[in-house]
Amino acid sequence: MIGWAIGGVFFGILGDRIGRVKTMTITILSYTVFTGLSVLSTSVWDFNVFRFLCGLGVGGQFAVGVALVAEVVPARARPYALGFVQASSAVGNMIAAMTGILVGQMEAAGTITGAWRWEFLAGAVPAPLAFIVFKKLKEPDSWLKAKGEKKKMGSYGELFSDPRWRRNAIVGFFLAFAGVVGLWGIGFFSYDLFRPVLERTFAAQGLAGKALAGKVTTWIGVTSLLQNIGCFFGIYAFTYLTHYTGRKKAFAIAFLAAMGMTSYTFWNLKQISDIFWMIPLMGFAQLSLFGGYSIYLAELFPTRLRSTGTSFCYNVGRFAAAAGPFTLGYLTKDVFGGYAEPMRYAGVTMSLVFLVGLAALPFAPETKGKPLPE
Amino acid sequence: MSPTAEGAGGQKYAWWRELSGYHWFVLSVASMGWMFDTMAQQLL
Questions:
Q1: Shortest CB distance from A88 goes to which of B5, B23, B35?
Q2: pLDDT at A151
Q3: pLDDT digits (tens, 9 = 90+) for A114-164
Q4: pTM of structure
Q5: pLDDT tens, A13-56?
Q6: ∠A11-A17-A23 over CA atoms, to 5°?
Q7: Could B42 and A93 be called an inter-chain contact, meaning their C-beta atoms sit closer than 8 Å?
Q8: Of all helices (H) and strands (E), which one includes residue B25?
Q9: What pLDDT, on a 0 to 100 scale, did the predictor assign at position A191?
Q10: Rounded to an integer, what is the distance from CA A134 to the centroid of its chain?
């Protein structure tokens, strides 16, 4: 996550300075090539170096992609197009989950060995997309115009010296911080919550040892797919909601829904049947916020700072989010360790982070129906 | 229900009808870039 955050900040600035298309080309090459090169690693050290370099590209993609689409598509279609981009992240998660299941089964069947290497090799397959981006895409007219005006492009000094952009950057940061911590610090740890439920259920059916472990692994894959289906619809639901309510009310509803559904799931998920509706609904609520980030963050900054500002809000939150799992672990072991199932108490407590986003909303500008700042 | 946009003349139509072939191309490529990005994240 540190690599993502550093890459996000670096490529965010680059996106404004050298352009969306060139930067997107570099980020795609970075995350695909270094994912593929991970296959060649022989120790944990070179593996971590490859993953860090991959992480730089991973962190950079969001801001330039969002800036590019926001500046190219017609204004009235912009929220829906950006929601479409963000919803594709759920599809990426599902492809990764299915790739993992596929190579795992091929390894179990003896068709391949070293399943993780095949999985990482699959991550290199999209590399040719970088050449399509480089050859076929043009820089947006608004970026070319801003570049031609000889204004300073992609600068943190510019971002924080102007009161309007500074305020938007700080507000955007707190909005993104709440959602990023909520997802990476809590949501993705729901696996630790339902794994014991799965183990209890299948052990009661007489499974043990490898058979039990295999069944649990398969079900975790299925649960991941269910979660991401919820995510897909949640992201896209935000674009519908904001069409009727505006950005700020849509965020308020999404923050409350995310807090409510996350705490409800952590407190009440006790049977395998609960997984089928609680996990998709939790994914729906948590990821609806991310639909909002793709739409709203690009609307907060002028063309010359759009990629920089968007990446600041989205990726600097990741630095803080890196502490989320530690906080969850601290709450589980040290604060609620004396309770039965302390993870439930820790998850409910952590879900209060969504209130941070809610508290930032009164300071956020309403951008619905307004043109992108120039 | 389809999300609709309101044109200058007040008529309502689906947002995707505003997109040209190039808009769709940009949207598709950017979506794929982000989709494969999140796929790479999950491989961690």
A1: B35
A2: 82
A3: 777 888 888 888 889 988 988 989 999 999 999 998 888 999 999 999 999
A4: 0.90
A5: 999 999 999 999 999 999 999 999 988 888 888 888 888 888 88
A6: 40
A7: yes
A8: helix B21-42
A9: 78
A10: 25
In degrees and rounded to multiples of 5, residue B5 shows phi and psi of: -115, 155
Asked if A158 and A304 touch (Cβ cutoff 8 Å), the reply is yes
ipTM reported for the complex, 2 dp: 0.89
- Residue B4 main-chain phi, psi, to 5 deg: -120, 155
Among A137, A133, A138, A172, which residue's Cα sits nearest to residue A305?
A172
The DSSP H or E segment spanning B5 is strand B4-6
Contact A129 B19 (CB under 8 A): no
Helix (H, G, I), strand (E, B) or coil at B2: coil
DSSP state of B17: G
Chain B residues within 8 A of A61 when measuring between CB atoms:
33-34, 37
Instruction: Specify whether the CB–CB gap between A282 and A190 falls below 8 A.
Output: yes
Task: State the nearest Cα–Cα gap between A161 and chain B, in angstroms.
Answer: 31
Q: A211: burial class by Cβ within 10 Å (0-12, 13-18, 19+)?
A: exposed
Task: Work out how many CB contacts closer than 8 A connect A with B.
Answer: 129
In chain B, residues with a C-beta closer than 8 Å to the C-beta of A24 are 30, 33
What pLDDT digit, counting tens, does each position of B7-34 carry?
545 556 788 888 999 999 999 999 999 9
Per-residue pLDDT band at A309 (split at 50, 70, 90): very high
Match 């139509």 to its residue by tokens.
B13
